[in-house]
From TrEMBL:
<dbReference type="InterPro" id="IPR017972">
    <property type="entry name" value="Cyt_P450_CS"/>
</dbReference>
<dbReference type="GO" id="GO:0020037">
    <property type="term" value="F:heme binding"/>
</dbReference>
<dbReference type="InterPro" id="IPR001128">
    <property type="entry name" value="Cyt_P450"/>
</dbReference>
<dbReference type="InterPro" id="IPR036396">
    <property type="entry name" value="Cyt_P450_sf"/>
</dbReference>
<protein>
    <submittedName>
        <fullName>Cytochrome P450 2U1</fullName>
    </submittedName>
</protein>
<keyword id="KW-0479">Metal-binding</keyword>
<feature type="transmembrane region" description="Helical">
    <location>
        <begin position="12"/>
        <end position="30"/>
    </location>
</feature>
<dbReference type="Pfam" id="PF00067">
    <property type="entry name" value="p450"/>
</dbReference>
<keyword id="KW-0560">Oxidoreductase</keyword>
<keyword id="KW-0349">Heme</keyword>
<dbReference type="GO" id="GO:0006805">
    <property type="term" value="P:xenobiotic metabolic process"/>
</dbReference>
<keyword id="KW-0408">Iron</keyword>
<dbReference type="GO" id="GO:0005506">
    <property type="term" value="F:iron ion binding"/>
</dbReference>
<keyword id="KW-0472">Membrane</keyword>
<dbReference type="GO" id="GO:0005737">
    <property type="term" value="C:cytoplasm"/>
</dbReference>
<keyword id="KW-1133">Transmembrane helix</keyword>
<comment type="similarity">
    <text>Belongs to the cytochrome P450 family.</text>
</comment>
Amino acid sequence: MGLMFDMELWSVIVLLIVTLCVVLVVRGWLDVPQNIPPFPVRPLPIVGHIPYMVDPRKTLMAWRKTAGDLFSVYLGSTLVVVISSYDLLRETLVKQAEFFSERHPGGVMPILKLPEGVVGSSGEVWKENRTLTLNLLRSFGMGKNEMAENIIEEVSAYLGELSKLSGRPLDPKDLTSRSVSNVICRFLIGKRYEYDDPAYARLLVIYQDYVDLAKSSGLLHWFPNLKYLPGDFFSHKLLYRRFNEFTAFSDKLIQDVINNENRDCNEDNFIASYLEEMEKRKTSGKPTHLSTDNLNRCMADLLTAGTETTTTTLLWFYLYMVHYPNIQEKIHREIERETGGSRLPSVADKAKMNFLHATILEVQRISNVVPLSLLHRVSEDVTVRGYTIPKDTMIKPHLDAVHFDEKIWGDPHNFRPERFLNDKGDVVQSEHFLAFSLGRRMCVGEALARMELFLFVAMTCQRFKITPVDPDQLPPLTDTMGLTYPPTAYQLKFVERR
């Protein structure tokens, strides 16, 4: 009798708890803020619009057609406003930048509780670390000849590795990533690594795992309590271990500088300069957000952003050259004309190699390797086009919508470098080109990335002809979802021209 009573009591308690949860969920979903931009479709309880977004690129483009340039979605219980036109992006991210430049309170990966650095921070932490990072990039020659010489040295090593293959097929991803990462490493620590250096190889494994695992753990951003499930279904535990490994690697580099143990490195490097500035500000008694934790995170930001975006863009460039061999040959002829076939291309040649420059811009536009951009957060209630966007709402800049806007480009799905050239053959820089985003959060390393892309492409196309493994079956122009959107893995041949 007592056992039956206990079971009935527990049944009533469970029923009450379930009922309460349902009531809270329903009330929460009925309590939608007033006058927000419209929903493309009605959000589902608890999960919001997530089930509709198996392919976010296609879904958001379709929703733009039905909901307009400004619409709302719920990712879990988080309200996100999607901005899908150039005019609206300028109106918000540029003209109202003081309200639209914050990040999620937990940074870009709240589940990891990372130090703030540059990419994931807000407010004074972000301003101080971003300003110093940009100043150091400029002082070390970003966009200038000093840095160009370092890049040329790195690309020469890269081409040497390609030459060793004697035209055999390869997936260029790993080699390209190693070379691009080395450009960032030289800036960070004052030296480049040999490609077979065990420490460097381990760093790149950690980095690549970190990039790959970030995709599988993405659902935890919106449902953080899922981390308490048994096992590691969303890979967040492995992601955290990889981040700790990277932190330990960076910490050792920082300590080597502090203890003056990096004798094989150029003293002019990011770590040493950051630490020097940090000590100056602390000694002067000025309040500062410079710290070794933020230095570590800035290093991770620069390595990840600097490697991933440039590598992905180069992979798309190679793929398009295979699909458009006539364009590749036109680029080669332009390089030969300007260099005389007797010297390496230089940064100064960029002003004369207009077709190559235009082709790089077109690859960046059509591949759009960061199509959705990182989330912003509004710091106050704001009004946009008559709609209210409440404080702490997340903002998704929809860059795809601009890069594939027929009203801007006419035929945006066609690969046509000439769209960036005028009647005289000069390069035309379009304000609608948003490969580096816009506003206060635009890419801090834009000048470095532009220089890298030009030198990698010019030097590679000068020396090699990029050909398919099977001329009758070209690799598809399809992407895969991740931190960036790289092409589906492929193999090509780099055939030496002479």
